[in-house]
């Protein structure tokens, strides 16, 4: 199996999902603000970002 670099769009999407999720969880744990959709599904969002990045690496052209 040959791996390739993900496209810039896929990389940026996964980066944004991961950063927003991590910042939201840290802000919620400090009591600053709670983002209703992100915090309860943080594990799933991080997992989705990782899976999308993995697909971007394994599938050519994605």
Characterization of the model:
The protein has helices at residues 8-30, 42-58. It has 62 residues and is an all-alpha fold. The longest helix has 23 residues, at 8-30. It has one domain (8-58). α1 (8-30) packs antiparallel against α2 (42-58). The protein has two helices and no strands.
Q: What is the percentage of strand-forming residues?
A: under 5%
SSE succession: HH
Number of discrete domains:
1
User: Any low-confidence stretches, pLDDT <50, length ≥5?
Assistant: none
Shape: elongated
Give a count of the beta strands, DSSP E runs of length 2 or more.
Answer: 0
Report the span from N to C terminus.
16 Å
Determine the mean pLDDT: 91
What structural class do you assign from the helix and strand content?
A: mainly alpha
Query: What can be said about the biggest beta sheet?
Result: none
Radius of gyration from CA coordinates? 14 Å
Helix content: 55-70%
Number of helices: 2
Keywords:
62 residues; mainly alpha; elongated
Summarize the structure.
With 62 residues, the chain is mostly helical. Helices cover 65% and strands 0% of the residues.
Write the layout of secondary structure elements.
Blueprint: H1 8-30, H2 42-58
